[in-house]
Write a structure and sequence with these properties.
The radius of gyration is 23 Å and the shape is globular. It has one domain. It has about 300 residues and is mainly α. About 85% of the residues lie in helices and about 0% in strands. Helix 2 crosses helix 9. The chain has 11 helices and no strands.
Length: about 300
Amino acid sequence: MAASSLLTLIDDIAGVLDDVAVLSKVATKKTAGVIGDDLALNAQQVAGVRADRELPVVWAVAKGSFKNKLILVPSALLISAFLPWAITVLLMLGGAYLCFEGFEKLVHKFLHDKEDLKQKHQDKISALSNPGVNMVQYEKDKIKGAIRTDFVLSAEIVVITLGTVQSAALSTQIAVLGLIAIAITVMVYGLVVGIVKLDDLGLHLIQNSEQNSMRKTLGRGLLRFAPYLMKTLAVVGTAAMFTVGGGILTHDIAYLHHLRETTVAAIGFDFVSPMVFDAFVGLLAGAVLVSLVEILKKIKGSPSANLV
C-alpha cells in the first residue's frame, strides 16, 4: 500500500514536471522576440562604459532585473487568481507596445540623417573622454536606464508566459513563471557579458600573439565581427518584435485570427505564412500607433516624439 502511494506520488510529480517542461518550451518560443530585443538593448546600454567597468555594470543591471521579476511574477500570479480577464487585456497592450516600439525603431533608422547620428555618436565619445565628466554618475544613469528598460521587457515576458499557462494549475503556473524568469535573466545577461567582452577578447589576442599568427588573425576577425553582431541583434530583435506583437494581436482578435487561417490555407506554407502574416499585422499596428501618438502630441502642442 505504501509502495503504491509512493509510486502514485512519483507519477504525479513526473506529470507536473512534464507539464512544466512543455509549457516552458512554449512560453520561451512565444517570448523569443522580447528576449532578442532584451538582449540587444542591454548590450547597447552597456556600450560606452570603460572596459574595466563593463562587468560590474552588467552585474548591477542583472541584479536589478532579478528584483524586477521578484515584483512582476507575484503580481502576475495575483492577477491570474483574482482578475483572470485582465490577462488578455495585458497581453493585447503588451503586443501593441511591442509593435509600437518596433515601428519607432524603424522610424529612427530610416528617417534620421546618418551624418546627424554619426555626429551624436562622436559627441558622446568626446564627452566620455572629457576628464570633467562624472563617470560614477554616468554609470549610475546607465544602470538606472537599463533597469527601467528591463522592467518593461520583463513585464512583457511575464505576461506572455502567464497567458501560456493561464489554464494550468497554480503550482504549474508558479513553476513555469519562476523557471522562465530565472532562466531568461541568466541567459540574457550571460550573453550580454559575452557580447560586450568580445572586442576585448579580440584585442587581447592581437596584443598577445606573434606577428601574422593564427591568434592575431582571429583577434582581428573578432574586432570586425563585434559591431556586425550588434547590428544583427538589433535587426533580428526588431523583426521578432513585429512577429511576436502581431501574433498576440492576431490570436486575440477574432477577425485577424480568421483572416490568418484563410491566408495560410490559400498560400499553403504552414510555417512561414503565419510568421509573415503576424509580422505584417505587427508592422501595420506599429505604424498606426506611432502615427496616433504623433497626432496626439501635435494636438496637445508638445514637441514631436523623440524617436532616438
